[in-house]
Write a structure and sequence with these properties.
Helices cover 17% and strands 34% of the residues. By secondary structure, it is an alpha+beta fold. The protein has a single domain, classed as VC0802-like. Strands 1, 2, 3, 4, 5, 6, 7 and 8 form an eight-stranded mixed beta sheet that branches. The radius of gyration is 15 Å and the shape is globular.
């Protein structure tokens, strides 16, 4: 969907993207806040605030997280493309986590200002 714009909310905190072996137990994480766990045959991936990185996990730290405000209907197309295209043009890498209701964009802390500028230039609102 060309020209589709969204409101994004910058979450507090700094995040990490972690990797554990595929047979690792799921670690204890806080009952509130944003975190995500994905298990595949090859790995257990965890996105969480830096302070909760599991012991022994390989991690990539210093990410900030933007949440798409509200709920995105499954029939809406081009949501991820609307963010990824703008960020790629600004040379900003992005790690995206999708949930049933919405999407979360993680960008490196040092790229946050450039990411926000690029998203705003594309018509998105960042608060």
């Amino acid at each position: 969907m060309a020209n589709r714009t969204f409101d994004l909310i910058l979450l507090p905190g700094t995040f990490a993207i972690c990797r554990l072996d595929p047979d690792s137990p799921i670690p204890d994480l806080p009952s509130r806040g944003f975190w995500s766990i994905t298990r595949s045959d090859d790995e257990l991936s965890i996105v969480c605030e830096q302070e909760f990185v599991p012991s022994g996990a390989r991690s990539e730290r210093e990410w900030r997280c933007l949440r798409v405000a509200g709920t995105i209907d499954f029939s809406i197309t081009g949501v991820i493309a609307s963010f990824a295209t703008s960020l790629a043009a600004a040379n900003v890498g992005v790690f995206i986590v999708s949930t049933f209701d919405t999407d979360f964009l993680l960008v490196k802390t040092h790229d946050l200002e450039s990411a926000i500028a690029a998203l705003k230039q594309a018509g998105h609102v960042v608060r």
